[in-house]
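agent: user wants the full assembly modeled, not chains individually. Plan: 1) parse entity lines 2) check alphabet per entity 3) run joint structure prediction 4) return tokens. Steps 1-2 passed, two entities, 678 residues total. Proceeding.
--- entities ---
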Amino acid sequence: MDVAIDGIGLLAPGLPCWRESRAVLAGDRPYQPTAVPSPEAAILPPNERRRSSDSVRWAVQVAQEAIEQSGLDPRDIPTVFASSGGEMLVFDQLCRVLATEERRVSPTLFHQSVHNTAAGYWGIATTGRQSSTALSCYDDSFAAGLVEAVATVREEQRPVLLVTYDLAVPAPLDEARPITEGFAAAFVLSPPVRDSTVILRLGLEQAPAGESACFPEYLAERLADDALERLRLNNPAARSLPLLCAVAAAAPRTVELAWLENQRLQLTIEPCRC
Amino acid sequence: MSPSGPMAPLVLSAYTLVTANGRGTGAVLDAILARRSALKPCDFEDVALKTHIGRVAGLEDFSLDHDLRPFDCRNNRLAWLGLQQDGFTVAVAEAKQRYGAHRVAVVMGTSTSGILETEHAYRARDPRTGALPAWYVSRYRYTHNMFSLGHFVRTCLGLEGPAMVVSTACSSSAKVFASAARLMRAGFCDAAVVGGADSLCHTTLYGFSALQLLSSDPCRPCDEDRDGLSLGEAAGYALLERVERAGGRGAVALLGYGESTDGYHMSHPHPEGAGAVRAIRDSLARAGIRPEAVEYVNLHGTATRVNDEVEDKAVYSVFGARPACSSTKGWTGHTLGAAGVTEAVISALCLTKGLMPGTLNCRRVDPALQCRVIRDHQFGALSCVVSNIFGFGGNNCSLVLGKL
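--- prediction returned ---
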């Protein structure tokens, strides 16, 4: 199943946006995981930005970057938001309040606790009415989101925005889910046309018996750069790095993504025709 | 709406449901026919809110053991209870034989997953260090994480196909039908177990209370004096297969789905129901049917002032006052992330019985509503039902179910 990649957004330590990160991801410049400033997420109306959580701003920032590259009107584009934990910072605040005698939950905090919070804020910012799906598949949330997005492109025959994001988990929840760095990436995926610049071919197959998800390193998705590889293993959204690196390399490549212990995605990148 | 035209119907070759009304479709149907509400004054843990809830009995009386022990939490117990009803696991085992374990997908919906475990863990933090208790730390993945439910159901059923959890607040387990249909049409699987489970927790009880959306009485959908919703909990499932493999005359099938967003506000619906209209129209277009073919609309009907008013505008603008409309929230309460599958299974039962259920607890239909809201049960030939679900983040989904 083929889709074109018409726009990419990226935000992570040392990877401040897609354009400035291409050389690093292609292996032409060393990766230095410097902290990134809190994203502007300029498309959010000021009121919404003030109330929004960090994860909303990260997700909206990369979504906006990808959409701007594509030149498409965001109101026409269905969305898929893939995140392992969603609003972990909100859960922390909420559960602290619920552990007090008074349990005085703020209405805003409550409606920000849903897994589709970032998707909802994106919809409000763009005033879009297209479908929007928020999903999770633990460490393989990006793979699941990619399949949902590609299936939607095929079904609707129109571009789809895929956003994947997970932020550093605050204490004390970090003991249960030790994600130490934030990561967000977005892709505008479209039905291929003659002048598409990057084609992604997606295949799904059964993983050979005996291979286990306990050892994600076995797969062809392992990255050459040690620091990038640590980031990939630390944050579920960073499981999109092999795809990002393959696109940045601007050469035909195939990478694999584990999807649970018994499915695997084969992603073939064909940059060309430009 | 899909440019590739109407979708091929997908048969619900097995389905089941557990709500506060009971375990299995038989108990649910009996309660509907007897107009027996399951809503009772809130007795959930130490919650001191003046509200009614639809609590599933018995979830405190057992635990998940052996291989399933890490998954043990209220939400997965409820999910487990659901799996045991109506011969559902047998039907899935047969599908596994037919297609292979790796060709059967699991797409589940939930809004809060096992967050109750995290709520408990935060109360049990170490007073000195603030650390969470050890019993919780190793089990976050299997209880609270949003994928826990999908992981659990896949493990219970021994399935190895694609899997994900859709979490779009109240529309979650309606949208799983759409996601599964896409996966099947794209060839990523041959059959799919879809469903949802959402259980009572402090987050939603105190959260909806903070939004001033909880009624202190059992909820009264579409009533002129309605004053808010009642929360409930439920788990439900359907096995989706293609007609050529599982179809038969009279079988209940998913004929269409429509998804949209309001792009308006996180917790208020669009005042004219613009997103809802779009979801309903898309579901009909995908089913390849005209509004006149729909005999009954199972409303989202939460019994908040605003929801019922806006939904009425949306439904009326598509259907006029012709089809019978009702909400079944008076029986079960609003089961949030499980509402989609709860009402899809109820709609399937209605189709098989030729039943258009009345609106329980609705004493006088709000004269401001334009749709034909029914208070009493009506019986007759029924071939096509639309079920609406709208959620936070302005996330809407409508399903068209019909008899082949």
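agent: reporting back. Chain A touches chain B through 68 residues (CB under 8 Å). Residues 161 and 188 of chain A are 5 Å apart (CA to CA).
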